[in-house]
Automatic annotation (TrEMBL):
<feature type="transmembrane region" description="Helical">
    <location>
        <begin position="492"/>
        <end position="519"/>
    </location>
</feature>
<feature type="domain" description="Major facilitator superfamily (MFS) profile">
    <location>
        <begin position="8"/>
        <end position="563"/>
    </location>
</feature>
<feature type="transmembrane region" description="Helical">
    <location>
        <begin position="460"/>
        <end position="480"/>
    </location>
</feature>
<keyword id="KW-0813">Transport</keyword>
<feature type="transmembrane region" description="Helical">
    <location>
        <begin position="539"/>
        <end position="559"/>
    </location>
</feature>
<feature type="transmembrane region" description="Helical">
    <location>
        <begin position="396"/>
        <end position="420"/>
    </location>
</feature>
<feature type="transmembrane region" description="Helical">
    <location>
        <begin position="427"/>
        <end position="448"/>
    </location>
</feature>
<feature type="transmembrane region" description="Helical">
    <location>
        <begin position="211"/>
        <end position="233"/>
    </location>
</feature>
<dbReference type="GO" id="GO:0022857">
    <property type="term" value="F:transmembrane transporter activity"/>
</dbReference>
<feature type="transmembrane region" description="Helical">
    <location>
        <begin position="47"/>
        <end position="65"/>
    </location>
</feature>
<feature type="transmembrane region" description="Helical">
    <location>
        <begin position="253"/>
        <end position="274"/>
    </location>
</feature>
<feature type="transmembrane region" description="Helical">
    <location>
        <begin position="166"/>
        <end position="184"/>
    </location>
</feature>
<dbReference type="Pfam" id="PF07690">
    <property type="entry name" value="MFS_1"/>
</dbReference>
<protein>
    <submittedName>
        <fullName>MFS family permease</fullName>
    </submittedName>
</protein>
<feature type="transmembrane region" description="Helical">
    <location>
        <begin position="134"/>
        <end position="160"/>
    </location>
</feature>
<feature type="transmembrane region" description="Helical">
    <location>
        <begin position="324"/>
        <end position="343"/>
    </location>
</feature>
<feature type="transmembrane region" description="Helical">
    <location>
        <begin position="77"/>
        <end position="94"/>
    </location>
</feature>
């Protein structure tokens, strides 16, 4: 593999890591973000769209992004995902109310989510089947390591600036990565086709780009002033006229500067549409959207979006899903029926016919769903247990307990990728999930003082390592069992399956725990809050153990058929001969 390709993959992995950090960065920043949007701290439920908006963009749009990566190529999708992520970071950083904040987080979710399938598909394009394990393990490791670095990064930035600084840093890093990916990919293309060099020096293209950059700059400057409305300019007799709405009580977008921002944006879009060499080839991207089956992608987005909104906006202490959950799920069910009909009739559906026909292909999705179902119990209930068993345990102390689990997870991901070259994917996944299942069984026996001793570290570390061990084999199995022109979609679907499993799992497992709590309280009214909380968490851990065990059994049954290692390839060649 060339040096340019190695650098490209390194930058892509770094981008995945940074986007993963952003997934968890709002953990500490959310109260300050609520204040910035004018939401009182006691009305936490109103801030749910800040979180669910990111998840919606991450999950619902992911299959479409993956499919476009198959059609247009991984590098353009990676670059565009970074651009969208950077744009979302900018909008979030200067947001002035809840809708603008949610819009920014949604764009961040779309951009950050699009990096994952494109990077995994790039690994599949650069490495033969038997050598994909380690790079897939590294990608999985940095993706999961974001859960460790995210809150720490947020705390570090909040120690010297406001929450807006977090997203300003995201914008800067995202912009630098866009430039880096562009330079590395263009250098590779120049070496492979020097005849195209003259096209880059064409005077017309230079003029198109110059005007496009000027329109972009005008859009950004006017948009920034519209969002921020600097007090010094507003108070100025001359400049203040730019911030007075044309209509009494109108929004900031019907002010002179707001209209200027909208006009500059419309001109920018028109220029990129009619002059494809300006900045972005909008007509080309629209063509790929249509080729990727935009109607089918829309139906699939509705299916996934309904699930996300039903479970992500719920209060697990009250119900499995939100009060509007039945309506969201009904919409998902209707869209699912229409999607099935569409996939049967469309000439080129978003999920190509037969793409997931192989047993390891669809099996990877089910296993990934169960992995997410079990994993969320660790991420949520380990710190809850820590705070329940120790009255004086702070949020930081509970997070440090979870850190023992999280620190082992990326290590397991790298080791799993390394072992995959000589170990069957089904066996490796089963071993990892059996370790996780056993760890949850031990946690299910924890009492009030279990975290006081050193022995509590064993199930935490073993469980995290086990989950990590299973990540690369699942990804490798679906890539080895699908065609090259469907790797982006397959990578997206396996990530979506795990995310959906996490959303459904947290609600289902919490419901199991609450039923245990209510039953024990009815049987023995003398039990205190701490004792009932322990019983609840024990039930959750046992439920997660069952989900992890089911993932292990299914992985052994279906993923063992995937040819992901040297031995498998040799056996296939011998059988063919």
């Amino acid at each position: 593999m060339s040096t340019a390709n190695r650098l490209l993959l390194a930058f892509c992995t770094l981008a995945v890591a940074f986007a993963a950090v952003d997934t968890y960065v709002v953990v500490l920043a959310l109260p300050d973000m609520m204040a910035g949007a004018g939401i009182p701290v006691e009305e936490l439920q109103r801030a749910a769209p800040i979180v669910s908006g990111f998840l919606l963009g991450y999950v619902a749009i992911l299959p479409l992004v993956g499919r476009i990566a198959d059609l247009r190529g991984q590098v353009p999708v990676l670059a565009m995902s970074l651009v969208v992520f950077s744009a979302g970071s900018l909008v979030t950083a200067i947001s002035y109310d809840l809708p603008s904040m949610v819009a920014g987080r949604f764009l961040q979710g779309v951009g950050g989510g699009g990096l994952v399938p494109a990077t995994m598909s790039l690994v599949a394009a650069l490495y033969p089947v038997e050598r994909r394990g380690l790079p897939l393990g590294i990608v999985s490791a940095v993706q999961e390591f974001g859960s460790v670095l995210g809150p720490l990064f947020g705390a570090l930035v909040l120690s010297f600036t406001s929450w807006r600084g977090i997203f300003a840093i995201n914008l800067a890093v995202g912009a630098l990565l866009v430039v880096a990916v562009g330079l590395v990919s263009s250098s590779g293309s120049r070496r492979s086709d020097e005849g195209t060099e003259t096209a880059y020096r064409d005077a017309r293209r230079h003029l198109d780009r110059t005007l496009g950059v000027l329109l972009l700059a005008a859009t950004l400057v006017a948009g920034f002033l519209t969002f921020v409305e600097p007090g010094s300019l507003q108070r100025d007799l001359a400049w203040g006229q730019l911030f007075i709405p044309y209509v009494d009580g109108g929004s900031r977008w019907v002010t002179p500067v707001g209209i200027a921002a909208l006009a500059a944006f419309v001109l920018l879009v028109a220029w990129c549409w009619f002059r494809p060499r300006a900045l972005v080839d909008l007509r080309g991207w629209l063509g790929h959207l249509l080729a990727a089956d935009l109607p089918g992608a829309g139906l699939l987005a509705i299916v996934l979006g309904g699930i996300v909104l039903a479970f992500a906006t719920a209060d697990p202490e009250v119900a499995v899903f939100s009060p509007q959950g039945p309506w969201f799920l009904t919409g998902s069910a209707v869209a699912a029926v229409l999607l099935v009909v569409h996939l049967r009739r469309a000439d080129a559906p978003i999920v190509p016919r037969g793409a997931l026909r192989a047993v390891p292909a669809w099996g990877s999705l089910v296993v990934s769903f169960l992995v997410g179902w079990a994993l969320i119990a660790a991420l949520v209930d380990i710190p809850l247990f820590a705070r329940t068993t120790t009255e004086k345990e702070s949020q930081l102390g509970a997070a440090l307990v979870l850190l023992r689990f999280l620190a082992a997870l990326p290590v397991g991901a790298v080791v799993g990728g390394w072992l995959l070259r000589r170990t069957n994917a089904g066996v490796l996944t089963a071993v990892g999930m059996l370790a996780a299942s056993g760890s949850f069984l031990v946690m299910g026996q924890w009492g009030a003082h279990s975290l006081d001793g050193f022995a509590s570290n064993v199930p935490l570390v073993v469980g995290g390592f086990g989950f990590g061990l299973a990540l690369a084999p699942v990804n490798a199995a679906i890539l080895a069992s699908t065609d090259d022109d469907a790797h982006g979609l397959a990578s997206a679907l396996v990530v979506v399956a795990r995310m959906v499993g996490m959303l459904v799992g947290i609600s289902a497992l919490t419901t199991i725990g609450l039923r245990r709590l209510y039953a024990e309280r009815a049987a023995d009214p003398s039990l205190g809050i701490s004792e009932l909380g322990i019983l609840q968490e024990q039930a959750v851990f046992r439920g997660a153990s069952a989900a992890a065990f089911a993932a292990a059994v299914l992985a052994l049954a279906v993923l063992s058929r995937a040819h992901t290692r040297d031995v498998d390839t040799a056996e296939v060649l011998r059988a063919g001969g």
